[in-house]
Write a structure and sequence with these properties.
The longest helix has 21 residues. The protein has one domain: TIM Barrel. The protein contains 10 helices and 8 strands. The chain is an alpha/beta fold. Helix content is about 45%, strand content about 15%. The chain is globular. The protein has an 8-stranded parallel barrel with strand order 1-2-3-4-5-6-7-8, surrounded by 4 helices. The chain binds flavin-adenine dinucleotide. The site of flavin-adenine dinucleotide (FAD) has 23 residues, from β3, α4, α5 and β6.
């Protein structure tokens, strides 16, 4: 199975992110989306991981199925807050046995108001554990162009990110709308001596109200005119406008030297297909 680190630095990559479906209907929708996006020959896909409960197991099952049944690699998101070292080690053994070689190592967020529990506090601790596993996983981490919402200040955020990313192979960013936020992040990392690839995460805004809520939680500035335009549209016209805006952002990022584009699909294919066609990726 292809390690993502081996894909970076050549042609720009095109990747898609999915989340584990909540029920049978959503599972069917995800299968259809995977079928439709397979035609674009993605470089890789990734599957998010719920916090607590059976979140890790559901992600493992979906990632394992994709790696077995599809001609592209799937990366498992793996959160560590609230989990034990023993539990994480067992999960990594499962992934290795299933031939899954790509892990996105994340802190995750403790459920609202709960204290941080388990053996981990920061993603960097998980990176160490994944790195130490004999399977030689390719390891990605999260980056926040507009600074992580729990960071006290920009310089501290960048110091922690640089230390974490230097131990990993690459980063994927939270979604954002201003290409200058990406170039500033890369420049700040370079100033700290960190030159690992940073793949920008791009969100086609197919559901403006929900995405505005995510943006507020993540500290991503959502341009008011874009929100107003998309809210005034519906159906295929909204998807087209969302794809156009995401294409424009993606093209600027590629022009600025981004090693690829990671699209947050929300388990839907239409916008991603339009973006990939316009970008000729
Ligand atoms: P960290 O790197 O640990 O950073 C969290 C905060 O701690 C930052 O403010 C950082 O500056 C600070 N920090 C880091 N190290 C130290 C240190 N040594 N001392 C003091 N402070 C420190 N969440 C999910 O639940 N499931 C997912 O599947 C998921 N996928 C994601 C995918 C991407 C591409 C991104 C960008 C985010 C994703 N998230 C997901 C969200 C992520 O879990 C949250 O943003 C979380 O709050 C932080 O995760 P992190 O890995 O960036 O944490």
């Amino acid at each position: 199975m292809t390690r993502i680190v081996d894909l970076l630095g050549y042609q720009p990559t095109l990747s898609f992110e999915f989340f584990p479906p909540a029920d049978e209907v959503a599972a069917k929708q995800l299968e259809e989306t995977l079928d439709e996006l397979s035609g674009l020959a993605p470089s890789f896909v990734s599957v998010t991981c719920g916090v607590g409960g059976d979140g890790h197991d559901r992600t493992r099952d979906i990632v394992t199925d994709i790696c077995r049944d599809r001609p592209f690699p799937a990366m498992a998101h793996l959160t560590c807050v609230g989990h034990t070292r023993q539990g994480v080690a067992a999960l990594l053994d499962d992934y290795a046995a299933a031939g899954v070689v790509n892990i996105l190592a994340l802190a995750g967020d403790p459920p609202d108001g709960s204290a941080i529990s388990g053996d981990f506090r920061y993603a960097s601790e998980l990176v160490e554990v994944v790195r130490a596993h004999p399977a030689r996983f390719s390891v990605g981490v999260a980056a926040h162009p507009e600074v992580h919402p729990r960071s006290t200040d920009r310089a501290t955020d960048r110091r922690h990110l640089s230390a974490k990313l230097s131990q990993a192979d690459f980063a994927i960013t939270q979604f954002f709308f201003n290409p200058a936020d990406y170039t500033r992040l890369c420049n700040e990392l370079a100033d700290l001596g960190c030159h690992q690839p940073v793949i920008p995460g791009v969100m086609p805004v197919i559901w403006p109200k929900s995405i505005l809520r995510y943006a507020e939680m993540n500290g991503s500035a959502f341009p008011e005119p874009l929100f107003a335009e998309l809210e005034s549209l519906s159906g295929p016209a909204r998807i087209r406008a969302a794809a156009n805006a995401a294409t424009e952002l993606s093209q600027s990022l590629l022009n600025a030297g981004a090693p690829g584009i990671h699209l947050y699909t929300l388990n839907r294919s239409e916008a991603s297909i339009q973006i990939a066609a316009k970008l000729s990726l």
